[in-house]
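Could you help me review a protein record that somebody else here produced? Do not assume that whoever made the record got everything right. The record follows directly below this note.
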Amino acid sequence: MDLGISGRKALVFGGSRGMGRACALQLAREGVAVTIAARNPQTLEQAAAEISRETGIGVGWVSADLTLPEGRDAAIAACPHPDILINNADGPLPGDFRDWSRDDWIAALDAMMLGPIDMIRRVVDGMVERRFGRIVNIVSRSVKAPHAELGLSNGARSGLIGFVGGLARQTVRHNVTINNLLPGAFATDAQIRHIQGMVEQGDKTFEQLWDERARSNPAGRYGQPEELGALCAYVCSAHSGYITGQSLLIDGGGYPGTY
């Protein structure tokens, strides 16, 4: 299927690794001019070169921290007037809410709610004027099936989804959609850090927890970043203009509810 977005411009946060990189790669395969943003210049430069080599599409990169105003400034300077925005930030390690300070909560909000909302603010009016825009927030299944140890993520990401629910219904008539992807357990560096955090709080080894988490999923495995990248590309496509304000699970059937 031709997704109808060749020649569009995309800004992808967290685009040097994991699911963000998978989104950037799939968009580039569709002919999108991609700029990836993250904090580490070395991984960014390497990822941009590898995606460019694989797809034949020039991929830009910018060292930019989504949590900081100057980072968001740098991202917009590197990719002015994007047609597609992917908000994506790592969640904090698991923990006990009794141990979290106000600073911990503010850091979580900056990464997973306030930073993404500010990026939406910066790009959405231009998208409306051009009559095309696709904003995708990579969130987490935990907003539907919360785990106590992920309280920082549960709270901040739920705030982002609540905000999006209202705005997405104002912009869709202008062919600007805003949606959320809710990944479950994926084989990424973030998942490794999550399991390592659980090891520190329990009495099982990393290998035991890693294997148990995979086996407990109805699919019997972890998701692969490429699977989320493909879904993201479709949600960003010219064919998805009637999908907005949605939180789309991609978790191998792990969420047990009907709705």
